[in-house]
Amino acid sequence: MASERALKWGVAAGVTGLMALSVAADLLSPSPEPRRIVLCALLAVAPATLLWQCLRRLTLRTPRMEDIPATATEAQIPTDAMLALEARLEHAPIALFRIEQAAGAGVVAPLNASARRLLAPGRAIAPQDLHQLLAAQPVGQRQLVSFDTERGAERALVAVSALTLQGASQRLAALMPVESELEAEALNAWRELVQVLTHEIMNSLTPVASLSRTACGLLDEAHGKLPPDIQADLDTALDAIARRAASLVDFVGSYRSLSTVAQAQPQRVLLEELFERLSALLEPQWQGKLAFSVEPASLEVMIDPGQLEQALINLLKNASEAATQAQVRARLSRGGRLRIDVSDNGPGVPEALAAHIFTPFFSTKKQGRGIGLAMVRHLVHANGGTVRYARSVGAGARFILTF
């Protein structure tokens, strides 16, 4: 501030000096003498130089960022800050959408790369349905929504905010897929539940089975000492108790396997070789009606080979009970992730039951235990992947494993 004041005084002094010399020159004009004219010109050099220097240095001060008022328009924001903000939004892990009102309906447009990937081929089956779902969400609330993708139904958390830009009102929707996280939590809950149930049931069944066997032995020793009808009734009752106890021990033991899966030991696996081993193992059952394919043939993956084989065996075992042909196809999907499709020509899964087929204890078969598909999901998740039941274009069931 002091330097600016000094410059202003310098400008005033220069202007005053020039004005004084101009008056003196006017007074000398009736009788101009060369000496006096030269003297006035020389005297004018000093104030003119001072005036020029002060005017050159007295420039407008460049405002700092903190001096920009809060009501500044977007055009006043520095370009670098705008580019940095756009880069952050573009690479945000949450899908962002803009919702604008036009002709009485909400027009939805993606704002970043995550949103565009969600609408790209290979993800959402019906992007327009997803647009309508987002446009119908209330402002200021978080909702758990579900939408169909080529990998099956996926759940996501959506939140919508209202804002006004350049006088136009619009809404901003943030969509975060949470299917994998929810499945992981559900698996942990089921594993803990199964572990507790099997432990308590086995604690009760083990002495029952042991006592029933002991009672059968004592009854054999007392043979002939009891009336025949009582002996026959006791034999039948104890035999039934022993058989049911042994059957329940075996039944509960099979569920215990859900909570005791070994830690995955990933290693580099050539999928073509893994498929060859599966083909040799399952060929007698399928009689040439099972096909494997890998694109490209050199495709490799870091995974526990034994657990992946077991997951595929379970899927193909289910398929063999309802279909006559099956196909397993491995390829790279968008983003460089491994995708394995297992499909068959059977009747498929009824749409009303599709959401429950991976739930432990749930089965559509009369003698089913509900372990096969639950184990598939457990093994796939243990190796960092996901498994979905997808709608098949034609008839049959179709499962998609993604790693």
Automatic annotation (TrEMBL):
Residues 196-403 form the Histidine kinase domain. The keyword Zinc does not apply. The keyword Nucleotide-binding applies. It catalyses: ATP + protein L-histidine = ADP + protein N-phospho-L-histidine. Signal peptide: none annotated. InterPro entries: HATPase_C_sf (IPR036890), HATPase_dom (IPR003594), His_kinase_dom (IPR005467), Sig_transdc_His_kin-like_C (IPR004358). Its EC number is 2.7.13.3. Keywords: ATP-binding, Kinase, Nucleotide-binding, Transferase, Two-component regulatory system. GO terms for biological process: phosphorelay signal transduction system. One of its GO terms (molecular function) is protein histidine kinase activity. It holds the Pfam family HATPase_c. This is histidine kinase. It comes from Duganella alba. The lineage of its organism: Bacteria, Pseudomonadati, Pseudomonadota, Betaproteobacteria, Burkholderiales.
